[in-house]
Amino acid sequence: MTTPNSRLPAPKVERTLVSIHEARAILDAAAVPIDRIETLTLHQLPGRVLATPIVAAADVPAFARSAMDGYAVIAADVASARDDAPAELRLLESVFAGGVPTRPVERGTCTAIMTGAPIPNGADAVVMVERTRGDGDRVLIADGVEAGANITPRGSDLRAGQPVLAAGALLTPSRVAVIAAAGLDRASVYARPRVAVLVTGDEVAAPGTTLGPGQVHDVNSISLAATIREHGGEAVTAEVVRDDPAALRAAVDAALSCDMVLVTGGSSVGERDYVLDLLAERGEVRFAGIRLKPGKPTIFALIDGRPVFGMPGNPTSCLSNGYLLVAPMLRRIARLPPLAPRTVRARLARRVSSPRGRHQFYTVRLEGGVAHPAFKGSGDITSIANADGYFEIGDETESVEEGAEVEIILW
Q1: Read out DSSP for 68-99?
Q2: Mind listing the pLDDT tens digit for each residue in 207-239?
Q3: Is the pLDDT of residue 1 over 50?
Q4: How far apart are CA 71 and CA 384, in angstroms?
Q5: By CB atoms within 10 Å of each CB, which of 31, 174, 190, 251 scores lowest?
Q6: Largest alpha-carbon pair distance within the chain?
Q7: What is the gyration radius of the CA atoms in the chain, in angstroms?
Q8: What does the DSSP assignment read for 311-325?
C-alpha cells in the first residue's frame, strides 16, 4: 500500500518519443566496453572474450613427427623404388606415438613409425605403410619419396614466443584448443557484464505459484535472464518489487552495483508507473518512449554512467525490446561481436496493418516459404514463442498487402 510520503516528487518528465534509429544511436554511444578481467581454466573459456594476448610457450609440435603410419627412411635409399623393383631395408625398431627412438637411421636401414611419433635421427622421410611389405627384419619399399615427405617439422604450427591470439578474440572451441596447444592451461578474459533484472507490480507472482485474483505469473524476468545469458551477460534477479516508490527506489539503488539494470513494468503513464520519475530523479533520462510497436513505453537513462532501462511490462513488448535494444548494447559492453542477422525472403500470407508514425516489428511463422502473421498483442508471449522471426514495417507504412515479399530476420 502506498503512503503519501513514499510517493516520488511530482516533476513529471516530458515524454518525447524517439525513432528506433535514434534510440539505437543513443544506446550505441552509451555502451562502454567492460574492463574487468578474470582468469579462467580452459574448460571455462568457450564463448568468452580474450583480455590479454596469447603467446606460444614452446614450439608446436615440439619435435619433428611422422604424419602417418609407415617407415622412417633416408630418401636417397628409396629414390628409385617401385612395385616391380622395391628397395630392401633392414628394420631397426618400432616407434609408437609417445615413444622415443633409440637408434639412428643409417643408409640401408629403416624404423617402423606410427602417426605422431618422433622422427629418429638420420631419417629424412616417411614411406606410408601401404607402399611396403614386411618380412621379419627386412622391409620392402615400393615407393620412392623425396626428403621431407610425410614429416611434420618441429615448430611448423607454432614457434616459441609466437603471438597466437590477440586480445579481443572471441574464444571459439578451436581457439581454446590453440591455447592448450600453446602450452597454457588458463587465460585471462573479460568478465561477463552483470545485469540486474527488476520486475515490478503488485499483480506479478512467481511461476509455479497459485495465482490470486488479478495476478499473473512473472514472464519477463525469465525471458530477459535467458536473453542476457545468450548475449554474454550474467543475469542477477531479485524478488518482485511492489508498486511503491520507496520500494522501487531501494531496489534500483541496490541494483546499481551491476553493470546494467533492467526494470520491467511501471514505465508507462499510469498512476502507479513510477519508473520514469525515479530515473529522472537519480540520473539522466536519454529517451522516454520510442515510436515503435511493440515496445513504445521504453525508457533509457544513465545513472552515474550505468545504463538503466525501463522496459514495458507486457511480455511481448519486453522480450521484443530485449532482442532489439538490450542485446546489441549488452554485446557491445561484453566486447562480443555484433550479431550478423540470418535472413530469408518470403511472401506474406495475408495483409497486415501498422499504425502510421510507429516503426513495427511484426512476428511471423514460416511454412513452405510463406510468412504467416504470428503477432497477437503486446501481452501475448506466444506472439514471439510461435514465431520464426520478424519483418520490419516502416513508420510511414500503414499496411503490407497479402503476397508482398518481405525480408524475415530469423531469431
Answers
A1: SSEEEE-GGGGTT-BTTB-EEEEEEEEE-TT-
A2: 899 999 989 999 999 999 999 999 999 999 988
A3: no
A4: 62
A5: 174
A6: 105
A7: 32
A8: E-SSHHHHHHHIIII
Residues 314/331, Cβ–Cβ less than 8 Å: no
Question: Can you read off the three cell numbers belonging to residue 121?
Answer: 635421427
Dist. CA 13–CA 282, nearest whole Å: 12
Bridge partner residues of 347 (DSSP): 370, 405
**Residue 332 class from Cβ within 10 Å (0-12 exposed, 13-18 middle, 19+ buried)?**
buried
Contact between 300 and 286 under an 8 Å Cβ cutoff? The reply is yes
Cβ contact 137:74 at 8 Å: no
The residues pairing with 335 across neighbouring beta strands, listed in sequence order, are none
Question: What are the chain's domains?
Answer: 4-36+192-333 (3.40.980.10), 37-60+170-190 (3.90.105), 65-152 (2.170.190.11), 343-410 (2.40.340.10)
Q: How far is CA 63 from CA 114, 124, 127, 285, in A?
A: 14, 13, 19, 62
Backbone angles phi, psi at 77, to 5 degrees: -70, -25
- CA–CA distance, 215 with 208 (Å, rounded to integer): 13
Grid-cell match 502473421, residue found:
373
Write down the pTM of the prediction: 0.85
Give the pLDDT score at 7: 52
Tell me the C-alpha distance between 325 and 286, whole Å: 14
Q: What is the pLDDT of residues 254-291, one digit of tens each?
A: 999 999 999 998 666 555 578 999 999 999 999 999 99
